[in-house]
UniProtKB/TrEMBL annotation:
The keyword Glycoprotein does not apply. Residues 1-32, 124-153 are annotated as: Disordered. This is AP2 domain-containing protein. Keywords: DNA-binding, Ethylene signaling pathway, Nucleus, Transcription, Transcription regulation. It comes from the Eukaryota. CDD domains: AP2. It comes from Cephalotus follicularis. InterPro entries: AP2/ERF_dom, AP2/ERF_dom_sf, DNA-bd_dom_sf. Pfam families: AP2 (PF00847).
Amino acid sequence: MEGGDCCSTSTSAEKRKRRKQQQQQQQRQEKRYRGIRMRKWGKWVAEIREPNKRSRIWLGSYTTPVAAARAYDTAVFYLRGPSARLNFPELVFQEDDLQDFSTASIRKKATEVGARVDALQTALRASESNSSGVPEKPDLNEYPDPESSDQES
């Protein structure tokens, strides 16, 4: 046996270890919010434990950490009240339409907030990338406007 096989294996193992350390460092830098974590493939998820139970309430999977944190804030506010420790205390307000404090209603409200914030954050990122000269991706769910379309005669 030659030492070449051994060294190439250790080199690739070192590369994997280095890559994993870089990902963990990136996670630590980005994860400054309570109640969220990052999946291996880059999505941010939010969940919260139910009070006095071992079960968790799944709050959704989001593309941005801010959206996941806002979903968590909404759920923790409805579960624990105004004294809860929030990521964005200035942005959560109690609405009168959530009278039923069931797990399902809390999950629904939190995912609505998270999805709304996620859409806004994604649009903000898209507009920032458009200013850098990257062409905008068309919204495939939107009907085309016949007046603004480029028609060749």
